[in-house]
Amino acid sequence: MRRSRAGIVACGHPLTADTAADVLAAGGNAVDAMVAAGFASFVCETPLSGIGGGGYMLIRHPEHGTELLDFFVRAPGLGASRRDAAALHFEDVEIDFGPTTQTFHIGYGAVAVPGNPAGFLAAHRRWGSIPLPRLLEPAIALARGGVEVTDWGATMFRILGPIVAFSPEMSAIFAPEGRPLRRGERFAIPELATVFDAIAREGHAGFYGGAVGEAMLEEVNRNGGLLTRRDLESYDVVVRQPLRLAYGGCQVSLTPPPSLGGTLIAIGLETLSHLRRAPGIASPTGGPTADGERLDGGLSLPAALRIAMDGVNEIRRRCFPDGELPSDFFATLGDEQQIARFLERTPRRAGNTTHLSIIDGDGWVASCTHSYGEGCGHLVPGTGIELNNMLGEDDLNPNGYHRHAAGVGLPSMMSPTLLEWPGGRLATLGSGGSNRIRTALLQVIVNLVDRGMSLEAAIGCPRMHWEHGTLQVEPGWDAAALEGFEREGIPINRWPEPNLFFGGAHGAMRDSDGRLYGMGDPRRCGVVRLVD
Questions:
Q1: Which residues contact 157 (CB under 8 A, 6 or more apart)?
Q2: pLDDT at residue 325 above 60?
Q3: Confidence band (pLDDT; 50, 70, 90) for 284?
Q4: Among 167, 352, 399, 420, which one is most buried in terms of CB atoms within 10 A?
Q5: Domain ranges across the chain
Q6: Report field, pTM of the whole predicted structure over 0.85
Q7: Beta strands in 44-90 (DSSP E)
Q8: Is the pLDDT assigned to residue 361 strictly greater than 80?
Q9: Of these residues, 46, 150, 271, 353, which one is catalytic?
Q10: Residues 143, 359 contacting (CB under 8 angstroms)
């Protein structure tokens, strides 16, 4: 009989967390727990998680180091002639967040090649210790038996109402009474349980081939999409080395290219490092809040973060608008003069996703961010699968839609992250939030490393996001600093309370003495489970 394994889980839903904790208690490692919890999240974290999406998983082996599994979505159309964009099923939907709105694009023409099943199966093949059918049992039970809608779920169903009720088959599950499901109501997706059964028996072929694959191809191609048989047959997971840099006395591991998230976070951290090294500017003083905190010598913390965010936005626009990095980019990433030159020409006025963080008592770390966007608005008949709408995500298609070559991995803001300090202390975290992922993680890292905050305070601290000429801010920032921005002519959108717009950063941590603890972002009703 296996011994129970200690561990900590932080994620976005109680049932996802319970699934991971049960696997740890049964003796599984962090990767086993991640696989089981990931499949469970495809059910209970609808409408922000689904089997038809893609993502990234950062895995730290206690003896063999850290690797990154890239299973994000790919541009479809391999082996097919390019279809006229006007013939694709591609529709605009405006989503109201309250203080701001955002336009999403859905339909079969927005569907990219899904990678989630391949990614979780690859993690299990490489590092799993419990048989796959056992790990999929919780997801199968949830899909068949149903899930009760939480406060968070009800909020998301309401916000994404135009998508979850877009088609009759979606409405039948998620809006059966003509309106999105509310807190305490239940939904089940029994046909999805049949798909999980096929994956448990057949592995990769249970999703990308056979009856499930055929159903996806028929539904998408018959209705104005781009997915081909070759897209499904050729999909494989890429194992990459993480992007690593030193920051504030710890080693930071981020998602490498072709994902953009890790690269842009690294640029933000390098910019902050430069600001600290510049004459007259030192490290932040630390403290429990953002109010009035300064970089000694002049810049307030809000001003420094705004400069870093502005730098990230500008570098992305100038250097890799299509997601392509210059061949010499990383040779200059840590170049002090390069950063300084960039800052001289950078003005000083400068989706939806879910994340799971798991650390076990033996030193395994599994950190995974995955998404299907908001979904394409349709279910594949007979399967319960809602495919992604990544070809319609603005931040993944900055120069226009349907311009990626077939087979190319789309760029992404996702970046499961690992922080390692001398002495054995480590933390893993990640966030949902579309193009706010990079700024959410940048701020949590600064809070942990520069400001010496606890994990709870670092994740709960007020956030800001700078983009499209407007500074979005949660309550709690220094009023004088914000008024100073406005005197410079910087528009500020003040949110009345913390909001899921600013991401959902779920983190797990191990102290140098081996103590485990975690924090689920309250903006996305995050939860934590500790297994002793």
A1: 47, 149, 164, 174, 175, 180, 181, 182
A2: no
A3: very low
A4: 352
A5: 73-115+201-360+374-512
A6: yes
A7: 54-61, 65-71
A8: yes
A9: 353
A10: no
